[in-house]
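Journal club prep — side note

Before the paper discussion, L.F. wants everyone to see what a predicted structure for a comparable chain looks like in C-alpha cell form. Sequence:
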Amino acid sequence: MIDLRSDTVTKPTPEMRRAMAEAEVGDDVYGEDPTVNLLEQRAAEITGKEAALFVPTGTMGNTIAVKLLTEHGQEVICDSRAHILDYELSMTAWFSGCLIRAIPTEDGILEWSQIRPLVKPVHPHYAPTGAIEIENTHNMGGGTVYSLAAIREISNGAHELGVKVHMDGARVFNAAAALRVPVEDIVAPVDTVMFCLSKALGAPAGSMVAGPAALIDKGRLLRKRLGGGMRQAGVLAAAGLIALEETRTRLSEDHANARFFAEGVARIHGVELDPRKVATNIVVFDIGATGLTSGELSRRLKQRGVLINGIGHSHMRAVTHYDVTRAECAQAVETLAEAVARVAIN
C-alpha cells in the first residue's frame, strides 16, 4: 500500500530501532531516565527555550501549554480550523476551562489585524483573553507556513497587552525547512511551543513542549495529572533523539515529493488544486467536480493500493513522508486519475 494518509504512519528507521534497543533507561517520573533527560535538553537547545518536556502525544503537549498560559474562564484565540479546536476533544474547555474564540482564515494563517479586535481585557461582562494559539505549519490549511514577520507581530502585539502566545508546532521542523531558517528563529517570539517527534520526524511516539523553565516545571506536574508520567521512557526518547538529529535534515525531500504529487493531481479533470500553494508536505485538494465524495474516492483508492483520507465531503488530504518515494507518489497520481476517470466513463 502507498500510504499518504498522514506522516504519523512512518515506521521507525533502522537507526531508531537500534537506539531504542540499546537505550540507557531509568525511571522518568523520578527524573532518572538519562535518555529522556538528554532528549529534553536537546529539544530546549534546538528551540532556544530554557527547558523542554517529553510527553506522549501532541494533544497532551498542547493541552499542557494552554493550561500553563491561561486561567480558568478565559478565552483562547485561534484559527477556526485549528487542531486544538477540531481534533483534540475540546481539551481547552475540558482541562483548562477556557473558551475558544475562533477566527476564520483562508489558509490557516492568522494576522495581528484580525486578532487585535478580539483581544479582551478583564471586564464584568465577558471573558478576558488568556492566550493566542498559532499553528505552524497549519494542518487543515494545507501545510501553510507563518512568516517570521507575522509571528513576531502577533507575539509582540500580544505581549504588549499582557497576553501569552502558544505555537502548535506539530510540524514546525517542516516550517523551518520551507523557510530555510533554524527552528529557534521561528519560535523565539512565542512563550511556549509544542512539536511532534512522531509526525514528519518519524519517531514511533512522543512530542515535546518547550518554554520557560518555571512553566515547564509546572508542566511536568500537569503531565502526571493527565496520566503522562512514563517510567523507562528512554526507549522512546532514543528514537526521538535520532529524529531530532537526523530525520529533520531530509524534510525538504518530502516537500519536493508533495509538490510533485500536487502538480500531477492538479492535471486530473474535476480536481481543484493550485500546486503553487503547496509549501510543505501536505496537499489538500477539492474533488467536488469529479462526482465523487471524499469517502467514495478513498474507498476506490484503497482497492487500488493507495491510502488517502478525506477531510469533509469533497476534500482530500495527502501527506508525504520518508516512507513514500517519488516513484510511489507518481503511482498514486496515476491511481487517482484512473479512479476519477472511471466515474466519468460510467
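L.F.'s comment for the group: The mean pLDDT is 96. Keep this in mind when we get to the figures.
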